[in-house]
Amino acid sequence: MNFPAELKYTKDHEWIKVEGNVATVGITEFAQSELGDIVYVDITSLGKEVAKDEVFGTVEAVKTVSDLFMPVAGTVTEVNPALNNQPELVNTDPYGEGWMVKITVADAADADSLLSAGDYKTVIGV
């Protein structure tokens, strides 16, 4: 499994890439493999301020629905439009074309408390 070192991770299986005060958020390769085939991504938080650990949407797989938790506080500025017609991008390219939201980060230092790739691997036992 792939866990890019330049990303930060949460125990809830989200990843975040912070660039200045903008961040991209998605779910990890591990999370998508556990969920199975993703059939729908529902993100209704566009334009909203979302607190750290608050639900910002859901991802629906064939057999389950899972909440998406915000890694850091921020305002959702963009939702990946490709996921409307191709939710399977979360399965095939979770760290690339399968990203979920872009946010304006309230405090970039919040990301410092998140897990490194190595720490995340320990959490999931790989």
Automatic annotation (TrEMBL):
Residues of the Lipoyl-binding domain: 22-104
Pfam families in the record: GCV_H
Co-factor requirement: (R)-lipoate
Keywords from the UniProt entry: Lipoyl
One annotated GO biological process: protein lipoylation
Cofactor binding mode and count: Binds 1 lipoyl cofactor covalently.
Any one GO cellular component localisation term in the record: cytosol
Annotated SUPFAM superfamilies: Single hybrid motif
Residues bearing the modification N6-lipoyllysine: K63
PANTHER family linked: GLYCINE CLEAVAGE SYSTEM H PROTEIN, GLYCINE CLEAVAGE SYSTEM H PROTEIN-RELATED
Subunit structure: The glycine cleavage system is composed of four proteins: P, T, L and H.
UniProt family annotation: Belongs to the GcvH family.
Function recorded in the entry: The glycine cleavage system catalyzes the degradation of glycine. The H protein shuttles the methylamine group of glycine from the P protein to the T protein.
The protein's name: Glycine cleavage system H protein
Organism this protein belongs to: Mucilaginibacter rubeus
